[in-house]
Design brief:
The chain is mostly helical. It is built from 8 helices and no strands. The radius of gyration is 17 Å and the shape is elongated.
Length: 159
């Protein structure tokens, strides 16, 4: 649905029906140069996280299994991603002690966790190729949670 004040602004929440989505994106926000730069940096940090995530899953899968390896990896990588996003992507934004910001980052990104690891688990459970090559499930999970994690991090952690 188009916003009546500015036809270039698409209001996703009103067009989504009952209650709208948790994440409200508008075209004007997506075109903002600061937001675009932050998203690119967030994506770069996410790519580094993907590489670390894959390495941890591969390193631990033989000893603790793919499911546990995926969860251990997520906590480690999410913590590293928080640190990189704090010092680079959202430098100077956010307030309070670092440990509280880290906890807030992990909590607000729980929806991203559900999307990320839900996709990972679904693929490991149903696609034999993903059991053989877990990197496929790790990558798909990362992409599934990225937009939600960026939006929530920007609005609730690094504001």
């Amino acid at each position: 649905m188009l916003d009546q004040r500015n036809p270039a602004v698409v209001d996703v929440e009103r067009s989504a029906g009952v209650g709208g989505p948790l994440v409200v994106l508008k075209a004007e926000q997506a075109l903002d140069p600061t937001t675009a730069a932050q998203f690119m940096k967030f994506g770069t940090v996410g790519t580094l996280g993907f590489l670390a995530d894959t390495a941890v899953v591969y390193a631990l899968r033989g000893s603790i299994g793919l499911y546990a390896a995926g969860m251990v990896s997520y906590v480690l990588v999410a913590s590293g991603n928080w640190a990189l996003n704090r010092v680079w992507t959202f430098r100077g934004l956010g307030s309070g002690p670092a440990h509280r910001q880290w906890v807030r980052f992990l909590v607000v990104n729980l929806l991203g966790l559900v999307l990320n690891r839900g996709t990972y688990v679904a693929l490991i459970a149903t696609v034999p190729l993903c059991v053989e090559f877990p990197v496929l499930a790790v990558g798909a999970g990362g992409l599934a949670g990225m937009l939600v994690n960026f939006t929530l991090s920007r609005r609730m952690v690094f504001r």
